[in-house]
Amino acid sequence: MIRYERLQMLSLMLLACCLGGIVSANGQTVRSLLSHEEGFVLNSPIKETFEHRASPRQFADTPLSEEVVSSLLWAANGINRPESGRRTAPSALNAQDVDVYLADNQGIWLYEPKEHRLRKIVEGDHRLLVAGSQADFATAPVFLLLVSDISRFRMGEQAQRLEWAALDAGMVAQNVLLFCASEQLACRPRSWMEKDKLRRLLEMSDSQHLLLNIPVAKAP
Ligand SMILES: Cc1cc2nc3c(=O)[nH]c(=O)nc-3n(C[C@H](O)[C@H](O)[C@H](O)COP(=O)(O)O)c2cc1C
Question: Of 2, 53, 103, 209, which is least surrounded by CB within 10 A?
Fold first, then answer.
């Protein structure tokens, strides 16, 4: 019986691999990401990382590997202390208010740190909306979108919450930029984007603030 269940599990995992790591749960598409053990790429020492940090304007359209996407999202705002659920990026009051979305040629996905996976929120290639008037940037295979939900702050007036939101998004952004610098990836923090259209597309609530986006690509 146990062997049969194992076989079933293995077949399901194999099927998921054949589908490029995409499995459906409750009618929604979720995409498993690789774990540390399965192949994170996090190599470069800190001095070299700082030397490479820069915001280029050219983004190659070569797809990023699953290893890179998995490590990138974990570095951005993944869970680095599973016992407490705390993150790679700090947040005011440990509100963990910043959600990371990923826009690629298939859709816009939400990163779910607990499960370390992506959940598809909308279908289709919306990278041009993220690039906005800087349409040349839309060649990047991946954009990360940083969204703070200020309802997660347990205290503070609106102005204080907005300040924390911007600061927390900055922390996540810097994680991404340093990860990119350490892995010779091209990336650029950007506040410009078609915010209203993206807000409508992602059906964001009033407490959700779309603060920053970051195109990520292989360095030329
Ligand atoms: C909060 C913030 C918002 C930015 N928004 C944009 C943007 O909308 N478009 C853009 O091309 N660059 C944007 N940048 C990138 C800056 O222009 C860039 O970091 C700056 O020119 C310094 O260059 P460096 O990062 O290579 O040192 C932004 C940077 C920050 C920190």
Answer: 2
